[in-house]
Amino acid sequence: MSHQQVDQGRRTWVAISCGFGAVGGVAAAVPFVSTFQPSERARAAGAAVEADIGGLKPGEKLTVEWRGKPVWIIRRTPEQLAELPKLDAQLADPKSLRKPDELTPEYARNEWRSRKPEFLVVVGICTHLGCSPSDKFQAGPQPSLPDDWGGGFLCPCHGSTFDLAGRVYKNKPAPDNLEVPPHMFLSDTRLLIGEDKKA
Amino acid sequence: MAEFKQAPADAPVARKLLTWVDNRFPLTKLWNDQWGKYYAPKNLNWWYIFGSLAMMVLVMQIVTGIFMTMHYKPDAALAFASVEYLMRDVPWGWLIRYMHSTGASAFFIVVYLHMFRGLLYGSYRKPRELIWIFGCAIFLCLMAEGFFGYLLPWGQMSYWGAQVIVNLFAAIPFIGPDLALLIRGDYVVGDATLNRFFAFHVIAVPLVLLGLVVAHLIALHEVGSNNPDGIEFKAKRGPDGHPLDGIPSHPYYSVHDIFGVVIFLTVFSAILFFAPELGGYFLEYNNFIPADPLKTPLHIAPVWYFTPFYSMLRATNPLMINVFSAIIALATVFALLKGRFGAALKVAIVIVALVAIALLNTFDAKFWGVVVMGGAVIILFFLPWLDHSPARSIRYRPGWHKAVFAVFVFFFLALGYLGSQPPSDAGNYVSQAGTLVYLGFFLLMPWWSRMGEFKPVPERVTFAAH
Questions:
Q1: Does A171 touch chain B (CB under 8 A)?
Q2: Which residues face B103 on adjacent strands?
Q3: Per the domain annotation, does B354 fall within a domain?
Q4: Within-domain flag for B113
Q5: What CATH number does the domain containing A64 carry?
Q6: For residue B114, how far is the Cα from the chain centroid?
Q7: Number of H helices, E strands in chain B
Q8: Which residues from B are below 8 Å from A133, CB to CB?
Q9: Is residue A29 part of a domain?
Q10: Do B408 and B291 reside in the same domain of the chain?
Q11: Strands (DSSP E) along B135-218, which ranges?
């Protein structure tokens, strides 16, 4: 074979055919990869949910499901609210300045991160790797928490801690505060999660 | 075409049949080339049992897996109950399921020991780099199998474990969130995720795995086994052309392997019948609770075989980023003072170091945690080029190298233990030290592996007939 003259014209056509074959192969992969995307049914299942907060007493928490995720509604006591400003130095992002558009709607960019100071509404999913933190409302020393613990949440997976406004403590694996979902009060006892535009 | 063979007229039927087949398919030839007359070193010790054991466990996982798919339903609403149905109502179903779940852990024990053997005797050194690389790819496939498979029972640990691992991909800058969405097929781990993980677990990854096992064995049988002395046993050949230090695998190693299999199955059965959950290490107790997307269990940890890497993920917090930055800065200063490089190269080193430190501090510690965890596995692929020891085998390396190995193993086990425990400050500091030891062991290997007084390597393997 090596003795024969290489026909450069044929070589060129072989290379072009291979090139087109490769393009076709990649194009054929597109529909296969596309099937990995959320289906139309999954996309449609994102409606807002309503919660009745009439029975929620100060210091209590209510969990509702929105888009398959837990959303917490916590009615904070005045003492718990008074504690929040004192923690700023220990928090990674006390003023909710990081990624404000994704995590904190405009009406929650305040010290208590909520529309009404009493009612905290956050998605109960840790911003580290998506576990749901556990309630640690009781202040004081306890396992896995610092001795001057002022109440908040502890993520059982990687030990991130959050205060009672869902703000993350410094030097923890979680980079961001808990997400405040779009929400609005329909009345004093009815809360709509997933929408915040006035109709 | 090969010459047409003819069995003697008075030969038994079996012999005639074999001749008939051999004239059409190289059955006898394959057997002789791959095992029957395949020469292995005489001096292989008990460390060499784990390759055969891994093969046996693989077959066991495939067989038990096939039988489980006959009862399992890959549907978020039905999965948990179908596994419990298999455990309680299907005759002997519990045995099949526990064989599979215990087999998964046994697989990792065997493979970790198999890899450590390679490390001890330098089995990845030239010309066995590809055997090692195929092996590392098999290890990756096994991790994927373990991860996909653990979601299928749809228990609390399944659910939240998958949630955490899928979110690891979301930590990648720019493309991360879309990538995680593509893996889950939904905005949360759900039915779509379960269905595709089932497909990956029962067909996609096993196919790749089997292909890699074949490649691993073809590469091994091309160059021949390494041995505890780390010398080429084929270098000295007898008048018949066969290696003087070798012996056909059959029957010598067939018998060894059967003996090893018996011991393995004794231990395996003891666990299977008396402690299939092994105190929560092989099957976590929280996984007997159906998945609840609204509540993470109070203590969540991956199965034991992932915990060393999981610890490294947890250890990478902003403090660790500062430590990494400081180490890079120190290494750069050291390279500038001690390295014999030209001015241009020194400038390049400084620029690379500055860029690295800048990147470390630009992206979240969360992303670097994922990089450390992934890097800890990927770094294994490069081992053949990191090890510069003049002697392959630990037997002829300086005594303190054994101490380095011991420290490495100690911290690997410590990382594994800590990864199974709830997070704590003290544990995290040990994990951070362990992460540095693990990475240092590999990244500094080009230097430390050639230091010290090496013992003379023998001409022939150390073997006494018995």
A1: yes
A2: none
A3: yes
A4: yes
A5: 2.102.10.10
A6: 8
A7: 19, 2
A8: 296
A9: no
A10: no
A11: none
